Amino acid sequence: MRTALYVRVSTRDKQDVSNQLIELRDSCDGEKDSIVKEYVDHESGSRSDRGQFQQMLRDAADKKFDLLIFWSLDRLTREGTLATLKYFEHFEKYGIRWISLKEPWINSAGPLRDVVISLVASLAKQEQVRISERVKAGLQRAKRGGTRTGNPIGRPRAVFDRAKARALRDQGLSWHQIAKQLNVSASTVWRACTTQEDKLPLPKSEPEVLEGMSQALPNRDSARLLPEGP
User: Fold this and answer.
1) Domain 2-113: CATH architecture, name and number where available
2) Could you give the CA distance from residue 111 to residue 105 in angstroms, rounded to a whole number?
3) So what's the pLDDT on residue 221?
4) Mean local confidence (pLDDT), 121-136
5) Alpha-carbon separation of residue 8 from 16, 152, 174 (angstroms)
6) Contacts of 210 (CB under 8 A, 6+ apart)
7) Is 218 helix (H, G, I), strand (E, B) or coil?
8) How does strand 97-100 pair with strand 34-41?
9) CA nearest neighbour of 70 among 49, 98, 109
């Protein structure tokens, strides 16, 4: 039987794949099994785009081997039960047998084959339901919030006591002093405490302009009492 071996270690593990390969090779019957290909990946099992893994799937579709032996299920994939079921179905479609060395009950030719497939399929269905529920909840949240993420559109509105800000302004405090007390920006206080007629275009990058305005116009009432000129 033409046999393929698949081994994987993640780059973070700092492990040597030779440990897996030695045991996988020893598990093959020299008289019945001929190892035609060894696929080795040094990537996370949560990634589906592993180079050798994808090559193995293509070779399975081309029927370049009859049996795939992997070290353990988590070495084959860590993408979840949906992905696991998809890969098992891929092997089944092309008549490829598969065996987990460390989990002998995960064996397409074993007595528990149907049980394993049924269990994986059930878990995959539950996972699919949970994903669907999370998507629906996210859409509802986004609908309430007005955005895809569910957050309000634009920047969060600054929350502070506007009445207190106006009272401090009437006491003659500068915009900067008021902002410091209320823990907001000077421009935010200025926008909240002035009428549309009072507002002048201010460079956002120059908050000191606000300070100059506070000195020139202590408050709206005093500004109206200024003489109009000779």
Assistant:
1) 3-Layer(aba) Sandwich (3.40)
2) 8
3) 47
4) 70
5) 9, 44, 66
6) 174, 175, 176, 186, 187, 190, 202
7) coil
8) unpaired
9) 98
